[in-house]
Amino acid sequence: MRKILRKLAWVFITIIGILLLFIAISFINHRIQLNKESAMLSPIGTMVNVNNHQMHVYTEGSGTKTLVFMSGGGTASPVLDFKGLYSKLSDHYKIAVVEKAGYGYSDTAAVSRDIDTILEETRTALSLAGIQGPYILFPHSMSGIEALYWAQKYPAEVSCIIGLDPAVPAAYENYPLPSDAMMSLTSFGARIGFTRFFPAIANSSAAIHENLLSEQEKKMYRAIFYQKTQTSNMMDEVRMIRDNAKKVEEGGVPNVPMYFFISDGKEVPLDDWRDLLVTYVGAANKGKYMVLDCGHYIHDHEPGMIAEESAKFIEGL
Q1: Which GO terms describe its molecular function (predicted)?
Q2: Domain count, the chain
Q3: Count of CB atoms within 10 A of residue 209's CB?
Q4: Residue 4's domain spans which residues?
Q5: N or C: which end of the chain has fewer CB within 10 A?
């Protein structure tokens, strides 16, 4: 019996040793690659100090109307993710992309992810970057909640909302959120560089998959992805989203024009996703929607059509 236990103990120790060795090799390789990629991680926009951490704001175009693009939860590089769409609008409008704490070129910071803090940081970042309202908001996915709250709390700052498969409050009543254990495991894997052994994960980004970026921009996206996957801020957003959505739901449907572009719903783990969005925008003043036959990152799948429809809607207000 003792011999069997000793053998089992050695097997266990060997497995643990191999696992620790793999983690060490992965981490060392990750640090080496991060050092090589550092040249690609220089911000392409303006860095501003908000709540004692740096936030990145990218702008282009010089029109009289300002479009603010707001990323969905967990999107590693909002600036590059939205490029396919905003590049088709910046000839006629000023565009801005605010990267929240833990995203893109912005710092990962110890800041609350309650809806008020998120919104105030976005507004402050825009102000410090010299971008004044009113704004036309382009929220994707989870940022739909922030955009709706913005219109509720500061209606004079929001001309309209053009939703890119945006979340609405009711969606989070039954939305299957990932557990803390799953998020922590994913975050740990990213921090030790485990994701580098599976390049298909980074390459599965819709912006890369749809070939909307140059080869250099694809390299930049991957470099940011390996640095900003499942950050602490992203995880805190998930932990707070039900409370944030409830607060927005209590505020009612804001009195601003809305145009929702809605995906086929197949990439969202909620059977009634499309119905919830259609119902919400149907209750809006000057509400309009279009259901598209494409995935959740609709701005990457149908940038040309969305740009054209958005411009028509904006100019018709």
Answers
A1: hydrolase activity
A2: 2
A3: 13
A4: 1-41
A5: N
